[in-house]
Design goal:
About 80% of the residues lie in helices and about 0% in strands. By secondary structure, the protein is mainly alpha-helical. It has a single domain, classed as TerB-like. The longest helix is centred in the first third of the chain and has 19 residues.
C-alpha cells in the first residue's frame, strides 16, 4: 500500500516540471479546447475556429496549428482543472490576456450557440486570468462583432 502511495506522489512530482515548461501558446490552445467542450459537444466549426485563431494569433502554419490543437486536445483530456493552463496565460501582459478571453468567446460562439455551461466556464476563467467581469463582457461583445 505504501509503495503505491509513494509511486502516486512521485508521479505527481514528475509531472510538475512539465507544467512549468507549458508554453503560453499550448496553454491558450488547451483553454480553447476546454471552451469548445464546455457544452459537451466539440463541433467541426469550433475545431476550425481554434485552428484559425492559433494560426493567426501565434503566426503558425495550418499544419503547425493542427499539431498544436492535437497537443491541446490531449492536455485537455487529461486535465483535472483549468489552473494548469490559466497559471501560464496569467503571466502574459494584460492586453494579450484580453485577446485570449476574446478568442475563447470566438470559440464558444463558433457553433452559433451559447449555453449556460459555456457562460459558467468564462465566469470561472475571468478571475483566474485576472480579467474583470466588465472586461470579460467587453471581450464577449468584440467576439460577437467578429462573428458577423
Amino acid at each position: 500500500m505504501f509503495d503505491s502511495l509513494k509511486s502516486l506522489f512521485s508521479s505527481d512530482a514528475a509531472e510538475k516540471p512539465a507544467d512549468e515548461t507549458l508554453s503560453a501558446q499550448t496553454a491558450t490552445a488547451a483553454l480553447m479546447v476546454e471552451a469548445a467542450m464546455a457544452d459537451g459537444v466539440f463541433t467541426q466549426d469550433e475545431e476550425a475556429r481554434i485552428r484559425r485563431l492559433l494560426a493567426s494569433g501565434f503566426d503558425l502554419s495550418a499544419q503547425e496549428a493542427g499539431q498544436e490543437l492535437d497537443r491541446a486536445k490531449a492536455l485537455a483530456d487529461t486535465a483535472v482543472d483549468h489552473h494548469k493552463f490559466t497559471r501560464v496565460v496569467k503571466n502574459l501582459p494584460k492586453d494579450e490576456r484580453l485577446k485570449v478571453v476574446e478568442d475563447l468567446w470566438c470559440v464558444i460562439l463558433a457553433d452559433d450557440e451559447n449555453t449556460s455551461e459555456e457562460d459558467s466556464l468564462m465566469r470561472r476563467l475571468g478571475p483566474l486570468l485576472a480579467i474583470t467581469d466588465r472586461e470579460r463582457g467587453e471581450a464577449r461583445h468584440r467576439a460577437q462583432a467578429r462573428q458577423h
